[in-house]
Amino acid sequence: MAKPRPSIERELKKQVDLTRKNGSLNPKAIGWAREPLIKSAVTGSWLRKKKWNYWCIVSPEVLFSATVSNLDYIGMVFTYFLDRETMKFTEKTISKPFGKGCSMPENVNETVEYYDDDNLVAFYRMRTYTKIDVKCVDFGGQVLDVELNVTAPDEHETLNVVVPWTRWRYQFTSKQNCLRVEGHIKVGDRKYILKKEDSYATLDFGRGKWPYDSKWQWGTASGDTNGTNVGLNLGGTWTDGTGMTENGIVVDGKLTKIRENMEFGFDTSDRMKPWVIKSKDSDSVDLVFTPEYERVAKTKVLFLMSEVHQLMGTYSGHVTDYTGKRIEIESLYGSIEDHAAKW
């Protein structure tokens, strides 16, 4: 069994600004960290800035997601819900010209809030936890009411990466797996209770300036498998050639940063067939993702064209942590996506 190759990417250990005063990338920010040390004040370059806070919640009964984003010329707020037993799926998207009402803070652990007369999507940062509060009068013809509290276990590590394309095109991403969540999700008359013991939250925080034509694959999962708590974050295509990856695993709260690129094998004519995800330079990651549900979202608004195929399902196979220990993965629930955007 081969260990993952040691990361040659620079580990950041103190707070740093993502950008210089003129809005270009600060070279000192390029690298990765075990906590969100990067202050992401992204300014200038109108139409190129992309900012979002995406939350995904998983329990044995449900998958729920809520996002607030500002893409400069449009703000997009969306929520979706999947009942894992019945496979009933509901989604709502709100578009706001020029990002009106979608104000995005600089730092990861800050409050984000969108509201109008009929909707509230808010991520309130409290002293020791994040409160997710979502209200929607018309969610597929029903009322949606969500109140969840998300906490990180003590000394829990997360994946924080700055990806440089050029001096003026770059991305800071904070991927936080295996956060604990409790509370309720009510859809119409059905109320789902989430407990910390078996419910997980994942945060995808993004701030940067992107190329107009972008493509990526992204796989993520959080949960317990064979007595071990495992979080997966595996990405492809968008980081190629940058010298950085967004690849990492969290095992019982400890991060293993993976510098290798990932190969995503899937059938573009039928994405419901199993996917294969492997590390390119070793056998440190060797997984099969088996889809159970496919979400397809296509958007064409103003300058924005986007097509995402997001699959919900399970991972099986193995990953290897920084000590060389092989972690067997069996039916770990998560998602994977193939996304093409002109934005």
UniProtKB/TrEMBL annotation:
This is DUF2804 domain-containing protein. InterPro entries: DUF2804 (IPR021243). It comes from the Bacteria. The lineage of its organism: Bacteria, Bacillati, Bacillota, Clostridia, Eubacteriales.
